[in-house]
Every structure is written in structure tokens, then in C-alpha cells.
Predict the 3D structure of the following.
Amino acid sequence: MPVGFRQGCFEDAARSKWDGSGPRPLSWAAWYPAAEDVVEQELRAGDTTAAWFAFGSAAPDAPIGQIHRRYPIVLLSHGTGGAAFHLEWLASDLARHGFIAVAMNHHGNTTTEPYRAEGFLAWWERARDLTVLLDLIASESAFAGHVDLNRVYVAGYSLGGCTVAALLGAITETSRFERSPRNKNFGRGPREFPDLADHLPGLLESSAIFRDSWARMSDSYLDPRVRAALILAPGNSVLGCNEDSLRSITTPNRIVVGGSDFVLPVALWLHERLPTSALDRLAPEAGHYVFMPEATEAGRLANPACCIDAPGVDRRSVHQHTAALAAELFRAA
């Protein structure tokens, strides 16, 4: 099945940009079943790390395929400091299997714009991003009338896995970047923002927009339209979730993690608390960044940690295996 590709940007008028200069942007990219006669071409991402990765082909702005009137939709959430295109391998495969797959660039936490500490600290805003995006994709885009809102699924990688958990009903109690007696998993920041915790006190003092977001930390971001979820290498922030809220989740979900991933203990912790989860543990050599796109030589030179896997790990094979698990999960739901 040919794959079409579109991208765009909505606005969430109910929330502001972190700098207060306008509504919160909802930048997105979509892969979808296209008409049979379209011509695919190699895609190029527009973020600062685009040269590090190789992407597949699709037909830009192609007509939507007419095999079905409506298609199931999968919302995708990238890892911290990542981009929508980092899940292109999964989105494209899902599109070839009859899904509309729409990935976000989460404001302030994406390589498509300058990093902001607020975007890394207030990760719960990501869940709201996907809920609002679903509303707008289904009603105000080229996909209006083509989205089956009875078949809504989500997938997320690393911090995107935490985003997925929030959409299923997980409630955040503590931030891992705030020093407090109840925070047993304090961290100063991820590799993309290593001094993140140092920014928190100043933002709470100086930014009303950030204070408002911080006050929403423990709100529910449950979206009852989600029928199943794929969680790839869930990030450490999920450890700040209320355990009772995790145990109350009934939506089918699947956790996939590498055997040598530094978040493997987190994945196991989460699996033990999600009553409807299945756990897929990849090869012992597979690390955290195996879910990133296949790397170019430029990427291997610029960022070997993200772009070079351990000997014996075939990133393409991992992607194919994981995409097959996703399609199986979503179809079963």
C-alpha cells in the first residue's frame, strides 16, 4: 500500500507558548494510506539532527486512499528532545498496514525548535498535546471525515512512553527533577539538558505560564478514546506516577525494551504495576537508542551514543519486529 505524507501546525488556544508570545504550537507530521497511483519519494526531515538519520519514502500531500472511508489512527510521541521524524520507521509501517499515524513535535522539547527547560520539566503537557491534536486532525485537516474515532491508539518512545501512560490514566505525583523527600529518583537532567533541575527554582519564581503548568502536574490526562497503547523503553519520569493510578489502568498495552537499555528496570517496574500490559524484552545487546531511526555516517560520527548499536544488533530488524508487534496489538484491540 502506498504511503502518503503530510505535515502541519495547529495551535492550542487554551495554552500559551512557553515565552508567552502566542498560543501553544502543535506541530505534526502524518503518514497514511495513499491512493494507488501516487509516486513516493525520499523524505527529508527539517530538524537540526536530520542529517544523522536515514528516512524512508512517501508521497507528499498525496490523496488519501479510498479503500476505506475511515481509517484507524495512531498518535505518536517522540523521546525527550526528539522529533516526530524519529518515529518515521514506525509511522510509515503502520500506514502501509492501513493506519493513519500522526507524530508530534512537542513544544520546547523537540529538535525542530530551540530547547526550553519548561518543555523538559513539564512533560505532562505532552499528553494534552496529543488529545488536542486528535480533535483537530479529525475535524480541521485533510483527514477530516477519514478518521475512525472508535479506533484510536497511541505509541511513545522514552519520555513519549510516559506521555502514553498519562493518556491511559497515570497520574504524576512527583517530578524527578525536583529535590524533595518523596522524590526517590532525583536526577539533574537528561543527556539533552544535563542541568535541567537547576532551572526549576527560577522558572517557578519568574514564569506565570510555567507555574500554571506546574500546578497541573497531578491532573488527569486520561483520554478514554484510546483503545490500546505501545510503550517503547519508558523513561524514568514514569517512576513519579501514582502507583494506584497505574494499577487502575485497564487499556491493553505493550511495553517493548532492549535487554541492555538503561531504563530496563523502569520498564519492569511499570509492567508489574500495569495489570493489562504485555512485556517484550529485546535481545540482551539492544540499548535505549535502538528505537531511533537508522543512522547515516554523519550521525555515527556526530552522535555515536544514539547512532551506533552494540555488535550483533540490527536496528532495522528491531524496527520491523516492533512495528509488527504494534500492528498486532492495535488490530487485536
User: Anything to note?
Assistant: Residues 315-332 form the longest helix (18 residues). The CA atoms of residues 80 and 159 lie 5 Å apart. The mean pLDDT is 97. The chain has one domain: 3-332.
